[in-house]
From TrEMBL:
Residues that span the membrane, as ranges: none
Name of the protein: Zinc finger CHC2-type domain-containing protein
Cellular component aspect of the GO annotation: cytoplasm
GO molecular function, one term: zinc ion binding
Organism, as annotated: Butyricicoccus pullicaecorum 1.2
Length: 198
């Protein structure tokens, strides 16, 4: 048996997927790391995986190669090493370095989650401001927090709507807009700043 055969015969695809951070549920389904997945579309069995949305499929070596963006042979060696099939052979430096980095799809998903939670937080802040700083009489000077709430609430709700219900293209548009120039990170500190002022 060559390395490919040994790896395929010895390592369970679902176990490998889980070891590499794919959360497989008890139906064998997971969020697909190869497209911007919202509901679990990736089916992972003992000896193969298949995504019903983007069509990605293959065996445990294909999966590893794709996840870490490495060649099939390196993926087989990585699997052999990670699952202690060939403890005498150290991993090539290139693979060890890649291990530390998130795959692109994971990064996308994390950004999407970040945008959603920050926007949601911001929306709650604005809802609070809208009530708390509303003018009491028509001649009152408008509080700037009330003004911000009036302007930004519809915007925040629109973005949240897309993140909740949009297709993967629409969501990635929102995410790339929000993450440009670190905008979402700045927004993330808003509710905290507000607490300091009180
Ligand atoms: Zn997919």
């Amino acid at each position: 048996m060559n390395l490919f055969e040994v790896v395929k015969a010895s390592i369970n695809t679902q176990e490998a997927a889980q070891a590499y951070g794919i959360d497989v549920n008890h139906y064998g389904m997971a969020l697909c790391p190869f497209h911007n997945d919202r509901r679990p579309s990736l089916y992972v069995s003992d000896d193969h995986y298949h995504c019903f949305a983007c069509g990605e499929h293959g065996d445990v070596i294909d999966l590893t190669a794709k996840l870490f963006d490495i060649r099939l042979y390196d993926a087989a060696r990585k699997l052999a090493s990670d699952f202690h099939l060939a403890p005498d052979k150290p991993l090539p430096e290139a693979i060890r370095r890649k291990k530390k980095h998130n795959t692109k799809a994971q990064q996308l998903r994390e950004n999407e989650q970040l945008c959603f939670s920050v926007l949601n937080q911001y929306r709650r802040l604005l809802l609070d401001w809208e009530k708390r700083y509303a003018p009491q009489a028509p001649e009152d000077v408008l509080d700037e927090r009330f003004v911000e709430a009036c302007h930004r609430l519809p915007w925040a709700e629109y973005q949240l709507d897309i993140l909740l219900q949009g297709d993967s293209y629409e969501r990635s548009e929102v995410v790339s807009e929000l993450t440009a120039d670190g905008y979402i990170r700045k927004l993330q500190t808003r509710p905290r700043e507000e607490r300091y002022h009180e």
